[in-house]
Design a protein that fits this description.
Blueprint lengths: L2 H22 L7 E15 L2 E15 L8 E6 L6 H11 L8 E2 L9 E4 L3 H13 L5 E4 L14 E7 L17
Parallel strand pairs: 3-4, 3-7, 5-6
Antiparallel strand pairs: 1-2, 5-7
Length: 180
Amino acid sequence: MSSGVALRTRAAVAVAICGSVVAACGGDDAAEVVTTTTEASVETTAAPAATTTTVEVTTTIAVPEIVTGGAVVIVANASSINGSAGRMSELLAAEGFDMGTPTNSTEGALGASKIYYIDEEAALGVAESLVRVFGGVIQLVEMPAVPPVSLTEIGDAGVIVALGDDFADQLLPGVTTSTP
């Protein structure tokens, strides 16, 4: 068996094992299930004739559902780009999130965005979904006693996106339907 085929076979088996582990670890009941089938060819030589064996590997991975309802989201501009909070609010509204009035952050200019959430299950679900929509590279922080926004009252908002320079006037990396 050639070393390239052996490596592909081991990689396919590793993917199957990892998928089984991820599926076994749980997730919420509303998770979307994605199934992938990978074929690996293994060539064995016995005497003059070559035999090809195909092994089918099925991997099931639970992908968490994006939760868009249950908490109002406010985008607070903490970037150096004027109006970016309003534009990001439009992108998030297009994805189905319940949006409040965009505002400015009181944190000053941030290089990296943050997502704040109140300590409630619904708000946490929306906040975690926003982290996925932002590509998983955004900090998730529990809301401080005084929210970091210039609005005097955040109303019924449970999540605040402090929009830094990293996502100001950018498309959402974790979705495919966003337009500039």
